[in-house]
Amino acid sequence: MMKKRLLAAVVCLSMLLGSAAGCSSGGGDSGSTAPAGGAASSSQSKGKEGKDLTFVIVPKCVHAWFDEVNKGAVAQANKLTEELGVKVSIDYRAPNTADVAEQNTVLQQAAATKPDGIALDPCDYKGSKAVIEEIQAQGIPVVLFDSPAPEGSNLTSVGNDFAEQATLAADKLAETIGKKGKVAVMQGLPTAPNHAERYQAHLDALKKYPDIQVIDGGIDNDNIETAQSQAAAVLAANPDLTGYLCCDASGPIGISAAIKEAGKVGKVKIVGMDNLIDILNYIKDGTMTATSSTMPQMQGSMAVLMMWQKHLGIDIPKTVDTGIAFIDSSNVDKWIEIVKK
Predict the structure, then answer these.
(1) Model pTM?
(2) Which positions ≥6 away from 336 have C-beta within 8 Å?
(3) How many angstroms separate the CA atoms of 271 and 55, rounded?
(4) Which domains are assigned to the chain?
(5) Is residue 293 classed exposed, middle or buried when 0-12, 13-18 and 19+ CB atoms within 10 A define those classes?
(6) Whole-angstrom Cα distance, residue 6 to residue 9?
(7) Percentage of the residues of the chain whose pLDDT score is greater than 90
(8) CB atoms within 10 A of CB 138
(9) Mean pLDDT of the chain, nearest integer
């Protein structure tokens, strides 16, 4: 089943890059389904009263990973424009930093433009709950991406199984270091639901290995420079460190830079998250062993489709699983080609 899911993820991304069509990886435990292929072309599927449509994407912060989400969203919007005969636009609004107050301000400003839907990756769902509910009360559909939907929220989540993603990474690292040694686990943005879920899954997975000592790897707050400085301090304080795990796309880049700077490439193994080009290049040059990756462009694509269907009043699934890709030296060249497209 795992191999099928990973293969489906690759196929889905290839389809997205080639035609901007959405698909579902399948195999998730949510029982959710997602639209396959392009948008329907019937007049009933156009925007209400045939008007142009605007969908807003609000990520946690300015970051290269979210730029990839936006690429997928724009590609899907362009496909919808072709199919529906109305202009479908993406309004991408990234807060400067991963801060719940700033993100709430961005959400309120976006809602004031009366868009046809908002897709959000929350810094802190509890801190944004009231704002989200205010937006929904205005009749504006809201979906989450790269984040689980909290119980009772009545929100759709577009993303992957974050615990499974982290478990894959932790198990790979344990295997790489011979199931013994000292491993640091770096947190991302602690209030972010997906980062918190990955962090706990890392810790739970490593409990299976009694000869692995787990230590605090720092907190990067989804910032590459912070990840590098935190990792440098951990490496200096733990000369016997054998492995490193992280919870977001900033961690592997910052940690890898710190490992190279400390002259510990090959001595400290790292298994990362996500598939940004810098991450792939670190796998290519041997600094990083592997990465357990989300599918950011697919998340952007499917978030747009979910907002569009919600705008039309169509029931949408509680979760849309966009898959996980596991990338190492055996397939990194293929992924570099995919990501560079």
Answers:
(1) 0.83
(2) 277, 280, 281, 284
(3) 35
(4) 53-160+296-323 (3.40.50.2300), 162-293 (3.40.50.2300)
(5) buried
(6) 5
(7) 83
(8) 9
(9) 89
